[in-house]
Amino acid sequence: MTKPRILQVGPLSGSPSANARLADAYDVFELWKHADRDQALAEHGKDVVAIVTSATLGAKAELINALPALKAICSWGVGYETIDLEAARKRGVLVSNTPDVLTDCVADLAWGLLISGARRMSLGDRFVRAGQWGQVHGNIPLGTRVSGKKLGIVGLGRIGDAIARRGTGFDMEVRYHNRRARNDVPHGYAASLVELAEWADFLVVATVGGPGTRHLVNQAVLEALGPKGLIVNIARGPVIDEAAMVAAIQSGKLGGAALDVFEHEPKVPEALKQNGNTVLLPHIGSATYETRMEMENLMLENLQAFFATGRVVTPVE
User: Fold this and answer.
1) What residues does the D-isomer specific 2-hydroxyacid dehydrogenase catalytic domain cover (predicted)?
2) Topology alike, domains 5-97+290-309 and 102-280
3) What is the mean pLDDT of residues 294-301?
4) What is the mean pLDDT of residues 268-291?
5) Selected catalytic residue, list 173, 215, 283, 301
6) Is 292 assigned a catalytic role?
7) Is 290 a known active-site residue?
8) The domain 102-280 belongs to what CATH superfamily?
9) The overall pTM is greater than 0.70
10) Beta-strand (E) ranges in the chain?
11) Which of 236, 242, 263, 292 is catalytic?
């Protein structure tokens, strides 16, 4: 039996076994192995019906339009800002992602960052490793209590909601900012992001990425959060104006930042690396074996469903 023809934009290096499972079930055109992509697409892309990609690898309009038989794009990951949805819709191409399965792990990591930033855990770890404990008078600077404080969330979607639920376990008052208020949650709504930042002790960024949210968290928001405030980002780096954040931390107008994502990954400003009021992680929000396996299974389930029924399980609307 002939295997269905798919195009894989790049290796899914963060997935436990996706590359092998794809190769076993499909006739995979491995685009990343071709130096001249245009020539490779012209020679091998005519029969490609589906693309497998990720939030990092994406699928631009040029790629979509170079595949005349394309009907589906199945992405590994929840983000889809790197996929040209307009180009896909014009061609009638289905797009799917892997939502829900990574919600808890990303929310857990947000809380790990928040607590680490507030209690200076990262700084304390470096302090001990450097052999400074017991060799200098005193200790690291005092941290900030987490329980009972005010938690602001930027983007109360699946992940934001999970972060908010965890906040109630810390006896926190929770407010959020969305494009519009929700009537199915008990948390307060802030129509203005600056207003939310002025109120909050901790501001967690959990909104979608893409052009519509680029630099949503700007200088005014960061300075409204204030010299004792902590910003946490587990969404997408460009949501925060990174240069403004660096300037605010250096000037003392922002208390600190705990970040899993950055504006120009994998580049991280040296000023953030050297500052004791930052916690920096290498974009590992979903990086547990359990979650990555569930993401892999759902991506493959979308692909299998498309070839069996012409539909996907978790379409991007």
Assistant:
1) 19-316
2) yes
3) 98
4) 97
5) 283
6) no
7) no
8) NAD(P)-binding Rossmann-like Domain (3.40.50.720)
9) yes
10) 5-8, 27-30, 50-54, 72-76, 94-96, 150-154, 173-177, 188-189, 202-205, 230-233, 256-259, 278-280
11) 236
